[in-house]
Amino acid sequence: MSADPHLRPCVINVDEKDIASSVGENLLDALNRADCYIPHLCYNPALGPIKTCDTCFVTVNGSLVRACTIRADDGLTVSTRDAASEAARREGMDRILEKHELYCSVCDNNNGDCEIHDAVDRLAMRHQRYPYRPKPYTADTSNPFYTYDPLQCILCGRCVEACQNVQVNETLTIGWELEHPRVLWDGGRAINDSSCVSCGHCVTVCPCNALMENTLLGQAGPLTSWPAPLKREMIELVKGVEQTTSFIPITAISKIDQCLRHTEQKITKTVCTYCGVGCSFDITTRGRHILKIQPEQGPANGISTCVKGKFAWDFVNSKDRLVKPLIREGSSFREAGWDEALGLVHERFSAIRASHGPDAIGFIATSKGSNEEVYLTQKFARAIIGTNNIDCTSRYCQSPATKGLTRTVGYAGDSGTMDDIDEAELLLLIGTNTTDSHPVLATRIKRRLKRGEVKMIVVDLLHHEMAERAQLFLRPKPGTDLVWLCAVTRYILDNGLEDRAFLAKRVNNLEALRASLAPFTLAHAEAETGLSQTDLARIADMIVGASGVCALWAMGVTQRTTGSDTSTAISNLLLVTGNYGKKGSGAYPLRGHNNVQGAGDFGALSDKLPGYLKVSDKEARERVGRAWGVELPAKPGLNNHSMINAAHSGGLHAMYIIGEDTAVVDSNTRHTQEALERLDFLVVQDIFMTTTAQFADVVLPACPSLEKEGTFVNTERRIQHFAQALDPLGEARPDWQILCALAQRFGHRWDYAGPREIMSEATKVAPLFAGATYDRLEGYKSVVWPVDAQGHSETLLYTKHFHTKDGKAQLYPVHWHAPVERADAEYDLTLNNGRVLEHFQEGNLTARVPGIMSKVNQFYVEISQELADELDIKTGARVTLTSRRGSVEAGVLVSPRVAGRELYTVEFSLTEPINRLTGNHADSVTSTPAFKELAVKLSILSREGPSPIPRSNPRFGARTPQSGVEVERKWKRGEYRPIPTTVADRGGVQS
């Protein structure tokens, strides 16, 4: 730890010794960095001063003060060893121990990170002045993921501060006015009946065992698994011994116990395997048991997690895991050895290539695997098979956003990092349900909104949480975002509100854009979108009036037939208003999978080599070919969408699908599954027997991220390393090892020692990642591409020039066409769809987590109150939704999030219902399926019944927002006495 390099350095005097600091640094942080221990049971660097624990008193410039409230500056003189300071800290600790029963040797949290235990030990406390006073409460064990024990709670308020002002779910408070204060959920509900989203922030910051992961209970060490009555006997025995021996022998025993636990426990730094935010954290394991996830240092998330990243790891040890290769025999599978399975793949691929050519085989790389594995997948396709038929999940979601950016500004990624989003004066969110799809990014936005530091416009079909918190929420007609974007851009130009200096210096093609905007008057936009001209003008004025605007968008934009053009229109608007190349501005298409950005970056695209080198570029192709020792194919290959069509037409004979449930996640599942059935040979490499695997001829058991090493790229272009925490289960192997073994069957010497060596090769092939070495990714270090050979990351793009031939951005004219599929007389309802917080996509991982399933366990459809009244149905009704492709059955949730004749369903399903309904129509530029353009009709099976969402789902809770812990309410309690007064009364006597 060092002083903040971004702040002016200063020197402070601590106990007559000068230490380096920075102006504005919290004094506690400076003292801890200088190894000057001061207990601080309510202070956490991520939370700031809370002022409830009274344990950090020091004397500053002659006055007794809480160290957490002081900022460093030149001339600051601090004493920590004077009698008053020491007495004050001991008094604070005594008050803490009055609320917390010390029984560390049998405590599940005695793992080296209990701050009460550490404070007692480091202060060498012998006894406590005030006896422990039990409270008349029992532990709340209702939540499936964590437990709250008010008997151990010291009322430090960290959990409340984290919930109110970091996560900003605003569920937790402290009932200071109760006779026996305690932490409350929704003012006094059981945790599982509250608005708690199980993000785990509260558990992460708790300094003791008052809040603890259920996975830790009884599992941390040998003694913790004892039955509760036996534990209680041990506690009573220990407490009795303390009266005569003091804390010190007991603390020594607990430290021995702690060391014994550490011989069984393993702590590994990993990166989340779910969405594209890229949260990183330590995972603690004991054998194969996952004890806890502890975030703290992640560059994207800090102390934050969501319910999936914090708690949804049960799938790793699921009984459903594939642990041996399988080979189809008739309508079933038999287990096989690796030699036989790989031999069959080699034999069949070789025969198909010989008979039909290399382009008869297609590859889909996993967006959940590592960059190194993606790199080898596309290298296998190109260098060994000889085809550019390679694609990834990006085709289903983010390819249109990539196209919009490459058309206008050059790079296929976010303009900056999440730190830039934090600095924006205005956020423009379009077609993104951020709190459900990218929850940790949403927390960053919500905390700035709560502090009044940013304004937000949300344009979406769904009235989700971000819409509730926005200064302006607008709901256009489905599929009309391009129209209002172009109309707002024209309004700005027509009224001379554009950034003229920026356009003149840094942007081309203004007049062509201006001409293309001629049809997009405010009146035309009002007619097409349903948004009023007043609101459209207000959007323009808010954008023009902000010093920096960040536009965030996701699948509500990209999964339409106009996805590429709408993404282009967003970029055009940002360019016209000068919102590129400066802090707090730019374009931020939010990536859905943990490594969907990396999958494209490292070459899993049919027309791009690693680093976005074009396969049609002879010089780039020859450069990569020389590195690989082969001649590469020049013709762009088939993408996901066209592979399925080619399988139908007989042009594609074999596929190799890695970590993607194509049969479920591709649109029009009947069409897709028929295509898979028509293949001569299908290989599926995955961790579960997915729906897609059931169509395979060979199934190869792969490893999840916890069982291997590698790197991911998050939505902000950040490359992060994850280490191996567990051994592979059974005979499962990491994807990279499987590909290397198969390559050797084809006569290629792929003898990589490991992912480090694979990345080293990739950095030489693709200049974009030149400096992304494993040494630079050690621990929590990361780089953001483009990263040069010296390791310098370009975190904020376009500060000097755009990634184009002449260094200028290109305004790109677009034209609107109505959605291909709209509601009509027969299919009279519009069906939107998207993610739900608790699950990830179809649920292949999260559906194997019992706690997650207790929150959302079935496919359902949300309908408006208006439509429910018209149909005379209630929440719990069962209905059939029918499109032009098929039908599904769903439970009904009458919801204020939808309006009129628009419906909303979740992507989560164990039986792929949403894509039974979706069609083959797609974005004309990128072939991304138009999942969001869907018309259905509804028939009623029953008019009411049990809610399809359990009552334990947080949407049924009632948040209790407040400014934070509100410590002033504690100070108003009759028994509270300020520490300095107490110290004076005690005459500096220490306990």
Poorly predicted spans: none
Helical fraction equals 25-40%
Structural class: alpha/beta
Main sheet? 7 strands, mixed
Broad shape: globular
The DSSP helix count reads 35
Name the average pLDDT.
94
**Tally of strands:** 37
Straight-line distance between termini: 33 Å
| Residue fraction in strands | 15-25%
Alpha-carbon Rg, integer: 30 Å
Q: Largest beta sheet: what is the strand line-up? A: 14-13-27-26-25-15-16
Describe the structure in your own words.
- This protein has 991 residues and is of the alpha/beta class.
- The protein is built from 35 helices and 37 strands.
- A seven-stranded mixed β-sheet has the order 14-13-27-26-25-15-16, sandwiched between helices. A six-stranded mixed beta barrel has the order 32-36-33-35-34-37.
- The radius of gyration is 30 Å and the shape is globular.
- The two termini are 33 Å apart.
Short description:
Helices cover 32% and strands 16% of the residues.
Structure keywords:
six-stranded mixed β-barrel; 35 helices
Give the helices and strands, then pairings.
Elements: E1 9-14, E2 17-22, H1 27-33, E3 57-60, E4 63-66, E5 77-79, H2 83-97, H3 115-122, E6 146-148, H4 158-167, E7 172-174, E8 183-185, H5 201-205, E9 211-213, H6 228-245, H7 247-264, E10 265-271, E11 280-286, E12 289-294, H8 307-311, E13 326-329, E14 332-335, H9 338-356, E15 361-364, H10 371-385, E16 390-391, H11 394-397, H12 399-408, H13 418-423, E17 426-430, H14 434-437, H15 439-450, E18 455-459, H16 465-469, E19 472-474, H17 481-494, H18 500-506, E20 507-508, H19 510-516, H20 522-529, H21 533-545, E21 549-553, H22 555-558, H23 563-576, E22 586-589, H24 596-601, E23 608-609, E24 613-614, H25 618-628, H26 640-649, E25 654-658, H27 662-665, H28 669-678, E26 681-686, E27 698-701, E28 710-713, E29 718-722, H29 735-745, H30 755-765, E30 783-784, E31 809-810, E32 829-834, H31 850-853, E33 860-863, H32 865-871, E34 878-882, E35 887-894, E36 902-906, H33 914-917, E37 935-942, H34 967-971, H35 979-986
Helix pairs in contact: 2-35, 6-7, 10-29, 10-30, 12-23, 17-20, 17-21, 17-23, 26-28
